[in-house]
Write a structure and sequence with these properties.
heterodimer, A: alpha/beta, Rossmann fold, five-stranded parallel sheet, B: mainly alpha, ABC transporter involved in vitamin B12 uptake, BtuC, 2% strand
């Protein structure tokens, strides 16, 4: 009965907000442009869950400075052209105070440019591309999740600890993202004194990786880095195992290389695989344990890093808006810079110089089908230098 | 006495004139309510209507199904974006797009015009796939992220200038731009050249007996369609300030074909109406429900089943009959 009453109140509030400006003033509007259909729909689902859980909790605890949060969703179809059109509706028609939810980096960058042109703020909770908070940074765009560089820095630091002066071989998928992930990791490893013994790029959807094994064997690497993904990982690692090449070689890779979707198919060959991540449900802190429990109770699913960072962004906006004492983009931007706030991963710091969140990074290793945390790198080491020159 | 083609063109002109009136009424209403979003959405719809127009030239008049027409739309958008980043001038961008599309349209036409029927459809589809994948992987073109930072322009007309950031002015400008493209297409299709194209669609084997080259006519139609698609695409980065490889993807080509079928194949005006309806419907339904693709699929199926010749395949014959009666001596 109580929930029904609440529902009626909410409906009335929405109905009234169309006509009465006074009531519209009451709620804080946050626009969410995220893929609800298409390839990235599972990520969009996590984003939605994370945002809705945080919003529900914040609203129950009194909202942002006494004002309730209202989320307005739009489907980006993971297409920058659609995302920009939808974001424009949220900015112009709904007059949202803040925008989040973009997933693919193309959409984040394009919507970021729109936010800058209309003078509003946005944050991404998913996009990895380093450029968003480096070469292509924008004064109106923030990132609360860890970027690709933080993941590879954490992984590199851990690999060097395991195998000092290692000989490293790199194998990536032959397209832009594959080449840039390999280049980024190689740069970090060379910095730490590792020896580069070769690199290879295999076409996407390669059926047969054995043609590369001669070259890998001849190089006698201690460490193999790979950024292939999906079914390519399945074929690559199982074929390596069949040829007895895995041995005591340490295999590491990008965070998308082995996921819950392909780990079963890889089987034993996945054991020992290490990667750098910004979040794991295994982080054993009271905040995280409580968050995981609440998330499971609400959605009957585990939160992943996207869900968790989307949960965190609501608290980020709340902290900034309350610190600023207003919802004016300029005031909120000032408050967001160098802000520290609490998330399930622990305390995060929003670096003022490039709008990139700084957080502790973790290295997880697969052991019998589950991801165990085997290393932790502190936030400042993993983040690296501020490369943003626009503000 | 007018022949059937001239008559159908007249009917099409009347429907386009009606579209202009609707657009102007909309512009006044939107302007008086201080709206930005719907004006810019309508501008985008007009830009994609240009792509649908080019599809109709091939599908409706030449009898070729282009499954990759977004190739030229995206090409125009990328060339325009690259030029505007260096030289922020509308006229320079349009000039470069026009000239480069002559070359690229000829190259594509030499490959695609050899084939017909399903083979043409596949070659057209394949070319677009290849080029979009190449763009997707070239870092200098922004790779999968696309290009941003296309400045807000002032389009100079001697005394007056129009800012691409002023929603009403740029909407009216785009409307005029599309009318010019429509007028060029309609004029060319009403000449003997247009009649050869229609003959190709009706019975290709008999065309050489009348002394016309199939290949040349098809190549010319292909290049005309490429030009219209590219010039429409050139406006996209001016409106949105960015381009991305998705503009060349099959979804864009497919939507253009769906727009043409909705409006009525071979009616020109129908392509414009169908495409605009589709863009607006996608946006409005998308806001209303997350199952927008299902709704649009159902609408499409309903039209195909109950109005197999599209909205204007239904309206236009009645209009033609009316016009024919007036012109009877």
């Amino acid at each position: 009965m109580k929930t029904k009453l609440k529902g009626i109140l909410a409906v009335t509030a929405i109905a009234l907000s169309g006509s009465g400006a006074a009531i519209a003033q009451e709620s804080v509007k946050i626009g969410v442009v995220t893929p609800i259909s298409g390839t990235y729909a599972p990520i969009g689902q996590q984003v939605r869950w994370g945002l809705e859980l945080a919003t529900k909790q914040v609203n129950e605890a009194g909202g942002i400075a006494g004002r309730q949060i209202e989320l307005i969703f739009e489907d980006s179809e993971a297409n920058p052209s659609v995302a920009v059109q939808r974001a424009e509706r949220l900015f112009e028609v709904e007059d949202v105070d803040f925008l989040t939810g973009t997933v693919n980096s193309g959409a984040t960058l394009a919507v970021g440019q729109l936010a800058e042109r209309v003078g509003k703020l946005m944050a991404t909770t998913v996009s990895f591309a380093d450029s968003i908070t480096a070469g292509q940074c924008s004064p109106n765009v923030f990132r609360v999740n860890a970027r690709a560089g933080q993941q590879s820095a954490a992984l590199a630091a851990w690999v060097v600890e395991q195998k000092p002066n290692a000989k490293v071989f790199y194998l990536g998928p032959d397209y832009e993202m594959g080449r840039s992930t390999v280049a980024a990791f190689k740069e970090k490893m060379t910095e730490f004194g590792a020896e580069d013994v070769g690199e290879l790029f295999a076409p996407l959807d390669s059926q047969d990786y054995t043609q590369y094994f001669g070259q890998i064997r001849a190089a006698q690497p201690d460490v193999l880095y790979t950024s292939v993904a999906g079914n390519d990982t399945v074929r690559f690692l199982t074929q390596m195992q069949e040829f007895g090449l895995l041995g005591d070689m340490l295999v590491v890779g990008a965070s998308g290389t082995i996921t819950s979707q392909n780990i079963t198919a890889i089987g034993d060959a996945a054991n020992g695989f290490g990667t750098g991540v910004g979040y794991s449900t295994r982080i054993d802190t009271p905040e995280n344990n409580e968050f995981v429990e609440q998330f499971r109770a609400a959605y009957d699913a585990d939160p992943d890093l996207y869900g968790t960072d989307s949960y965190g962004v609501i608290h980020f906006y709340k902290a900034a808006a309350e610190k600023a004492g207003s919802l004016e983009p300029d005031a909120v931007r000032e408050a967001m810079r160098d802000l520290t706030w609490m998330t399930p991963q622990g305390e995060k710091l929003m670096r003022g110089g490039d709008h990139q969140a700084q957080q502790p990074m973790y290295v997880v290793q697969i052991n019998g089908g589950s991801f165990d945390i085997v290393g932790k790198v502190d936030g400042e080491t993993a983040l690296g230098a501020d490369l943003c020159e626009r503000f | 006495m007018l022949d059937r083609l001239s008559l159908s063109m007249r009917a099409s002109h009347i429907l386009v004139a009606l579209l202009v009136i609707i657009a102007l009424v909309f512009a006044v209403v939107a302007w008086s309510t201080g709206d930005r979003f719907y004006l810019r959405l309508a501008t985008e719809a007009l830009i994609f209507a240009g792509l649908a127009l080019s599809v109709d030239i091939l599908l409706g008049y030449t009898g070729l199904l282009p499954l990759g027409q977004a190739l030229f739309f995206g090409f125009g958008a990328y060339v325009s974006a690259l030029v505007l980043r260096e030289v922020p001038s509308f006229w320079v961008a349009i000039g470069v797009v026009f000239l480069s599309t002559l070359v690229v349209g000829l190259a594509g036409g030499l490959i695609a015009s050899r084939a017909r029927g399903v083979y043409f459809a596949l070659i057209s589809f394949g070319l677009a796939q290849v080029v979009s994948k190449v763009v997707y992987n070239i870092r200098e073109l922004g790779a999968s992220d696309g290009l941003r930072g296309i400045p807000i322009l002032d389009i100079e007309f001697g005394l007056v200038s129009i800012s691409t950031n002023a929603p009403l002015a740029f909407f009216l400008f785009t409307l005029a731009f599309m009318l010019i493209l429509y007028a060029i297409a309609a004029y060319l299709l009403d000449t003997p050249f247009g009649r050869v194209l229609i003959a190709l669609k009706a019975n290709e084997k008999r065309v050489p007996f009348l002394g016309y080259s199939i290949f040349r006519a098809r190549l010319a139609a292909y290049m005309l369609a490429a030009q219209i698609a590219a010039l429409s695409g050139a406006l996209y980065p001016m409106l949105r300030g960015f381009v991305s490889p998705e503009l060349m993807f099959f979804a864009v080509s497919g939507n253009a074909v769906i727009g043409v079928i909705l409006g009525g194949v071979g009616t020109l005006a129908g392509a414009l109406y169908g495409s605009i309806l589709l863009t607006v419907m996608r946006s409005v339904v998308g806001t209303w429900t997350e199952h927008h693709l299902i709704v649009i699929g159902l609408v499409f199926m309903t039209v195909v089943i109950f109005l197999p010749r599209g909205l204007f395949g239904f309206v236009r014959p009645r209009l033609e009959a009316l016009l024919a009666r007036e012109h009877r001596p």
